[in-house]
Amino acid sequence: xxxxxxxxxxxxxxxxxxxxxxxxxxxxxxxxxxxxxxxxxxxxxxxxxxxxxxxxxxxxxxxxxxxxxxxxxxxxxxxxxxxxxxxxxxxxxxxxxxxxxxxxxxxxxxxxxxxxxxxxxxxxxxxxxxxxxxxxxxxxxxxxxxxxxxxxxxxxxxxxxxxxxxxxxx
Length: 170
Fold this sequence. Notes:
This protein has 170 residues and is α/β, with parallel strands linked by helices. The protein has five helices and four strands, in the order H-E-H-E-H-E-H-E-H. It has a single domain (20-162), classed as 3-Layer(aba) Sandwich (Rossmann fold), CATH 3.40.50.960. It has a four-stranded parallel β-sheet, sandwiched between helices. Helix 2 crosses helix 5 (132-164) and helix 3 (66-75) packs parallel to helix 4 (95-114).
């Protein structure tokens, strides 16, 4: 799809006005780490012209609860995009693989069923230990992932707006 950046509607700073609504779902398991993605996501987007009032943060107990919340939020018709963040740790049993696959599959199903984009910053590290070194590493890593999600958000919103101008072939 051709992107014509010379058109005023394609200027990212101008196109993300106060009408844009973004839901952030954050799992409270390891919230001190997970919330870093939400913060950097919002800061990055506000730095490129989004208003603080564009964002609504919704807390859920853990990552497994993210898909239902995403579905319910998408069904309201209020949000242009949903970003979800969580940390699924390997507790030494198989369950983390099941949870990670289930959460990602369900988030993808939500966006396909509702047409509302759902970005994932739900991470499943190979190794996570309750040490200060690991907690610090993952706090910093979630900051980076939040910024990456902000970039994906801008591009996705621009793509979705471009698609509204297209007519489906009959």
